[in-house]
Design goal:
Keywords: Transferase. By secondary structure, this protein is an alpha/beta fold. It has 2 domains: about 5-200, Spore Coat Polysaccharide Biosynthesis Protein SpsA, Chain A; about 210-240, no CATH class. Helices cover about 25% and strands about 25% of the residues.
C-alpha cells in the first residue's frame, strides 16, 4: 500500500525537521513518501532528503499550516496514494505507527483511523504522559489520523472555506477537520496505542498534571484595549500582568 505523510513547515529548526523526516522514512511500513510543504520559508536541505517530495510555497499563509496541509494532501490525492497521514514538523512518529494504523484499518475496513498520542515537553524532551483530549471520540489531533483514498474529500476542511471562517478560526483548523470527520459517513476506528509523539506548549497540559507552567506555555490573554483574546507565552502574560492588565488569563 502506497502511503504519503504530509508535513507543513514554517520556521522550525532544521534539527526538528530532520527528526520529523527520519521518523517517516524509518517506518516499519516501507512504502512511504514524505510530502513536506514549506509555508513561505523553504529549507534547501530538504530537497536532497530521501523519499521526500518538497513543495516550496512562495509566501506564508499565516493560518497555522492549514493551507500548506491542504496543498500537500491534494498533491498526494493527485498522485494516487492509497492513504495519507498528517504530521506537524515539530512532532514525530513511533517506528511502527503506520503499520499499526494500517493493521487497524484492514481489520475493520475503516476509511479513517485515529490514534492516541504521547505528550512531550519541547525544551527537555520529558515525557508528560498520554493525552486525554485526543481520544477519537470528543476530539482527535491533526497528527493522529490515517485517511484512506475513499475519504480524501475530507481534506477540503483544511482550507476550502469562506474568508469569514478563515479569519475567525485563529489556528483551530484541527477542530474544523475533526468536525468534518466526525460528521461524515466515513467508517472510523480508533487505536488506543499512542504511536505519535507530540511536543506540547499548551498550558492546560501542564496545569492538569499539577506542573509549574514553563515560560513557553501558551496562554490566551484578554487585551482590554483591543477587546479580544490573544495567544501568548506565559512569560509575556506575566509581563502584561505586571504592566497592569487585570482581565482573566483564559488558559
Amino acid at each position: 500500500m502506497r502511503v504519503a505523510v504530509v508535513t507543513p513547515y514554517y520556521r522550525e529548526p532544521l534539527e526538528k525537521l530532520e527528526r520529523c523526516h527520519a521518523s517517516v522514512i524509518n517506518q516499519t511500513h516501507a512504502d512511504v513518501t514524505h510530502i513536506m510543504v514549506a509555508d513561505g520559508y523553504p529549507r534547501a536541505e530538504v530537497n536532497a532528503w530521501p523519499r521526500c517530495q518538497h513543495i516550496p510555497l512562495p509566501l506564508s499563509h499565516a493560518d497555522s499550516g492549514d493551507a500548506p496541509r491542504l496543498i500537500g494532501c491534494a498533491s498526494a490525492a493527485a498522485q494516487a496514494f492509497d492513504a495519507v497521514l498528517l504530521l506537524d514538523a515539530d512532532n514525530w512518529f513511533q517506528p511502527d505507527h503506520i503499520e499499526t494504523l494500517l493493521r487497524v484499518q484492514q481489520r475493520h475496513a475503516a476509511l479513517v483511523v485515529t490514534c492516541a498520542r504521547r505528550l512531550v515537553r519541547p525544551d527537555n524532551g520529558e515525557l508528560l504522559g498520554l493525552c486525554a483530549e485526543s481520544d477519537g471520540r470528543r476530539f482527535n489531533d491533526t497528527n493522529c489520523y490515517l485517511v484512506m483514498e475513499q475519504a480524501f474529500s475530507l481534506f477540503a476542511a483544511w482550507g476550502l472555506r469562506t474568508q469569514q471562517v478563515t479569519r475567525s478560526i485563529g489556528g483551530l483548523g484541527d477542530c474544523l477537520f475533526w468536525d468534518a470527520v466526525s460528521k461524515s459517513n466515513a467508517h472510523r476506528v480508533h487505536s488506543p496505542l499512542a504511536t505519535v509523539n507530540y511536543e506540547t506548549s499548551f498550558a492546560i497540559h501542564y496545569l492538569s498534571r499539577k506542573l509549574p507552567l514553563p515560560d513557553f506555555a501558551k496562554v490566551n490573554v484578554w487585551l482590554p484595549a483591543e477587546e479580544r483574546y490573544r495567544q501568548t507565552s506565559y512569560a509575556e502574560y506575566r509581563d502584561l500582568v505586571a504592566a497592569g492588565h487585570t482581565a482573566d488569563q483564559g488558559y
